[in-house]
From TrEMBL:
InterPro entries: Reg_factor_effector_dom_sf. Gene3D superfamilies: Regulatory factor, effector binding domain. This is GyrI-like small molecule binding domain-containing protein. It comes from the Bacteria.
Length: 208
């Protein structure tokens, strides 16, 4: 008797407007309700590494938890999924010249807080007594956002943000909160900087 093959779900394909953005003008769109594993960090970044900004002084634990989520959902409910790109919300620079950021990774709707807690517990067990940074399982409501694909070095994404700011103001919107960057360039691959792809996104609302 043949065993049924488990389909691998890829949220890049499920949400192409969110994660498969093509080069072009600024877009205004509704981002659906989505959920993430997140980690608040204050860290220094070396922005020349091909793949994503590299943390120099803190451990990124989000991907370890999401890898555990993959194992749990595949075994318990037969749901297999691909890892999503690293996302960072950039908040501010503190007195130590470190960036205050939220590191996050989107996870499927089938993930619950109970499954998340099980995955985190597995990571803590695997790290054998090491201090595991705080993380959260977060559900974000649907928002109206503006975004544009930045192609080039990460250090230049503020130029794309300025394009977004100019366009949204012309269209009668204002930006709410901090910018989010989604790093589409696969980690650990040595692409030339001019090929790196980053989605720059901000939440917006209509001016009164």
């Amino acid at each position: 008797m043949e065993t049924a093959q488990i389909i691998t779900h890829d949220n890049r394909k499920i949400y192409p407007d969110i994660y498969s953005v093509k080069p072009g003008p600024v877009q205004i769109l509704r981002v659906p309700k989505m959920q993430y594993v997140t980690q608040e960090m204050s860290t220094t970044f070396h922005m020349n590494w091909a793949g994503r900004p590299e943390p120099l002084d803190e451990q990124w634990i989000v991907w370890k938890i999401v890898n555990q989520l993959k194992q749990i959902t595949k075994k318990s409910i037969g749901y297999k999924f691909k890892l999503m790109p690293t996302e960072i919300i950039w908040h501010s620079i503190n007195d130590d010249d470190k960036y205050n950021i939220t590191h996050m990774m989107q996870v499927p709707d089938c993930i619950t807080s109970e499954i998340y807690e099980e995955a985190r517990a597995n990571v803590e067990k695997n790290l054998r007594g090491q201090t595991v940074p705080k993380t959260k399982f977060v559900v974000e409501d649907s928002t109206i956002s503006a975004q544009k694909l930045h192609v080039g070095h990460y250090q230049d994404t503020l130029l794309t943000l300025q394009e977004i700011e100019n366009y949204t103001e012309e269209q009668g919107y204002r930006i709410k909160g901090n910018r989010r960057e989604i790093y589409l360039t696969p980690a650990m691959q040595c692409h030339l900087p001019e090929t790196w792809k980053t989605i720059v996104r901000v939440e917006i609302d209509k001016l009164d």
